[in-house]
Amino acid sequence: LGAEGTGEEVAALExxxxxxxxxxxxxxxxxLAVGGLLAxxxxxxxxxxxxxxxxxxxxxxxxxxxxxxxxxxxxxxxGTVTQSLPLWPTVELQVALSFSNVAVPMGGTALQIRYLQxxxxxxxxxxxxxxxxxxxGSGGAWVPLLVLAVGLSPRAIHFGNLPTGVLPAVTxxxxxxxxxxxxxxxxxxxxxxxxxPPVTHAAGSVWGAVRSPRRLAMLLGGNLVVGLLxxxxxxxxxxxxxxxxxxxxx
Length: 250
Fold this sequence. Notes:
Layout: H1 2-6, H2 21-41, H3 44-52, H4 56-78, H5 87-103, H6 107-118, H7 123-152, H8 167-187, H9 189-210, H10 213-240
């Protein structure tokens, strides 16, 4: 009415934007992720100098190959549960895991468990599949790949800098913790009634997944392809800066 009375145009209303909790967490996570990446990169000046001489074709190939590992990770994830998971949302999950693992420690595991719950898995199955079985699947594929790579590498690989001296102590400590936990569960009936049913249910779900040849092939095969693609991606990065390292050494 005021605009009509004065013959002026109606002023546009200012758009108000509220900050939701989800957007705030995403913004904080993004800042943490960027900070982590910058810390890993090191000197920005050195990075800029190196980038000026880079072959961007190889870098583009490395990026595409690196992103393709999410598809292989998604296939491996399909083999962790007896339920049928949709492939593309599972691949999107892997991209989200790459972000959350940089921004929030252990955030990827929680996100993976929540995704499995949304797909119809109960909590014990989601924890066993998204945490334990996926980790065992990675180890089951990557340890033989590492042994093969060491055998085929034309260059000597030295393991002197690895902290092998602490491995026996760590193994013994973990074994003692497992024995104490098992003793508490067995010796306390109330605790046994709380712990054993979900553990038994989760173990049955894991066994149902690994006894299927198709799902076991997806779990191990997907992780094996991931390891190979990571090597190819890193090789492409090295070629982009004029470095030549044998593939199996990479």
